[in-house]
Specification:
α7 runs antiparallel to α8 and α15 runs parallel beside α17. By secondary structure, this protein is an alpha+beta fold. It has a six-stranded mixed β-sheet. Strands 6, 7, 8 and 11 form a four-stranded antiparallel β-sheet that branches.
């Protein structure tokens, strides 16, 4: 009887991992290595604990005419050298991740999101896992191999290195999921007659552990007689390089069942709305960025509806745009809010132009566009008054110079949307991003490349101050818009600074840099300012005072440049930049290293822009 082409069934996760453990399920040698970072593993574990589907596993029944070299899944150490019954074609990353997190009795060696190798253990905070309105994924922790969390001084701030410490802090090790309740027995023994702890364990076992016991994995298994060519073709089609599907891909598949083409809508309705040159600041907005903004509005509307019905504050649904929130975005909500978000992004581009941000090359944070678009969409006409624009600008620059959008940002998005909209509409409470933002004067010395958001922010503030080209008098943003030849260059040239024995950490900082055209920079060359000012004056075909006026638009003291007084120039410009940053943030910046009453020009003296 001929072997069937393939079979489809569901198998208990416990049994599948047991097959991996003893070597009955192994990898064909052509499979790539395991590459998932620990946050992806935590997300997978959270999905299974909630009984969410995590995709199908595809196997090839071993023992046929087509033979492949095989190897165990990373971390599995089967006894002897058993021949596998099945080879894993698709699902390697998920099975390896689950095996390592749930079955290993040693630290999991994986990587972080920067692809740096890390090792540790997966734990779940029992109490957080049972919180109804909390994100299950956030309850799962990846702890260092020593099971201790250290601060930057190498001091222990969390310790779970002994079972008693796990019990005391309600931290459940994920590799005890399939231990038949042994950990739970020890947990309840540790707490003795404490009924609350026994109740906690029962709830945790039912809500978190039981889904792992009951979880079944959909398995497609190709028959033994599947030709090699077919195996390779199937593998190439189903294996996408070991990365999770994006939210956009998952929603595309979900909405397709309701006859809606999300990909076409994104390309033809959303991106097409800002193809014009004036919207080029939006050219790197991704489909996921767009979905996050839509989800922010949808979750905000849901919360407002519950508030109107009198729901208690602690029971209100949260505003959010994490993966979980986006996956819950219904097609009706997408259709309802996407037009507002399209308009919100377009209005955001106009707002950014008013802040002298014209191109993604100098956009401080692409991520800050997401809450900005959502805020403008939700605030509507209320965001267009002069007072509202001032508040919005202050919030924006606090985010930039407070450098608050460089890490995990979804929580800040969910705070900023209601905070800023309420503020715009008249609530006196300042947004949390505004109150949290701080700018240290010493940061100016460490801003040396445009990789930093604050560096790009200072560039925009110089344009806003009216910076013009020293030779032509053209506004910097006009020059950059038409030929893109403008860039950040040294005012006191690097070669001259090196020859003068100045500290590179000082002369390479943003204080000694400004936006100049390539041609102006060639005229400057590597000589002292006193030398190149003469050449600039001749090239510009104007007198010294005319040229000096143009230089002052860059918040630079031309007299100190003419006398090659680097220290005096540096102190004055540093003070001027701090004043501009302070004004943009609407905050006083305390500078213990410089007393503005003793030296350095005032902002008014330097900001001579309109007549230059």
């Amino acid at each position: 009887m001929a072997d069937e082409a393939f079979s489809i069934d569901k198998r208990p996760l416990r049994d599948v991992l047991r097959q991996v453990e003893v070597g009955k399920a192994q990898l064909p040698e052509f499979q790539r290595g395991w590459v998932w970072p620990w946050p992806n593993i935590a997300s997978l574990l959270a999905s299974i604990s909630l009984s969410y589907p995590v995709g199908t596993v595809m196997l090839l029944r071993a023992g046929g005419n087509v033979r492949f070299k095989y190897r165990p899944i990373e971390g599995a150490t089967p006894t002897g050298e058993p021949e596998p019954e099945s080879l894993i074609l698709d699902g390697q990353q998920r099975l390896t991740s689950l095996f390592q997190a749930l079955k290993l009795r040693r630290p999991v060696v994986t990587q972080d999101m920067r692809k740096q190798q890390v090792s540790g253990w997966f734990y779940v905070d029992m109490r957080r896992a049972l919180e109804e309105n909390d994100d299950r994924e956030e309850a799962i922790r990846f702890l260092p191999a020593g099971r201790q969390v250290l601060n930057f001084r190498r001091e222990v701030i969390e310790d779970y290195s002994k079972p008693e410490l796990e019990y005391e802090h309600h931290m459940f090790p994920l590799n005890a999921v399939f231990d038949n309740g042994d950990w739970g027995d020890e947990f309840t023994d540790y707490w003795g007659d404490d009924k609350a702890k026994r109740s906690l364990w029962r709830a945790f076992r039912n809500e978190f552990i039981r889904p792992f016991d009951l979880y079944h994995v959909p398995v497609i298994e190709l028959g033994q007689d599947t030709p090699r060519q077919a195996v390779c073709q199937v593998f190439e089609k189903v294996n996408t390089g070991g990365v999770t599907l994006t939210v956009f891909e998952l929603l595309t598949a979900t909405y397709a069942a309701e006859e809606f083409d999300l990909r076409r809508h994104w390309q033809e309705e959303c991106r097409a709305a800002w193809r014009a040159p004036e919207y080029r600041i939006l050219r790197e907005v991704s489909n996921t960025d767009f979905l996050q903004a839509v989800t922010l509005l949808a979750t905000a509307a849901r919360r407002q509806a519950e508030q109107r019905q009198g729901t208690e504050e602690e029971r209100l649904p949260r505003i959010g745009c994490k993966r979980k929130d986006m996956l819950a975005l219904s097609l009706d909500d997408y259709k309802r809010f996407s037009p507002s978000v399209i308009a919100g992004f377009k209005t955001a581009a106009k707002f950014l132009h008013q802040q002298y941000l014209f191109d993604t090359k100098f956009l401080p944070y692409g991520t800050q566009l997401i809450p900005l678009a959502a805020i403008l969409a939700l605030a509507g006409d209320a965001a267009h008054t002069a007072g509202a624009q001032q508040k919005l600008a202050r919030w924006y620059w606090c985010g930039v110079f407070g450098e608050l959008y460089g890490g995990s940002t979804e929580t800040r998005f969910s705070q900023d949307l209601p905070d800023v909209v309420d503020w715009i509409r008249g609530t006196p409470t300042e947004p949390r991003t505004v109150t949290a933002a701080q700018f240290s004067p010493g940061r100016l010395l460490t801003l040396r490349t445009r990789n930093s958001a604050a560096y790009k922010g200072i560039y925009a503030l110089l344009l806003k101050a009216g910076a013009v080209d020293w030779r032509t008098g053209e506004k910097a943003e006009v020059t950059g818009y038409f030929d893109e030849s403008i860039d950040i260059h040294h005012i006191f040239p690097k070669a001259w600074c090196e020859k003068s024995g100045l500290d590179p950490a000082v002369y390479n900082s943003i204080v000694n840099k400004t936006p100049l055209t390539a041609r102006t920079n060639r005229i400057i060359g590597g000589t002292s300012p006193s030398s190149y000012l003469d050449r600039l004056e001749k090239s510009a075909e104007t007198d010294f005072e005319d040229m000096a006026g143009r230089i002052r638009t860059h918040l630079a003291d031309v007299n100190m440049m003419a006398s090659d007084d680097f220290d005096g120039f540096f102190t004055a410009r540093r003070a001027a930049l701090l004043n501009h940053i302070s004004s943009a943030m609407g905050k006083v910046i305390n500078d213990d290293e410089w007393d503005g009453d003793d030296e350095g020009p005032s902002l008014d003296a330097l900001d001579d822009t309109e007549d230059a």
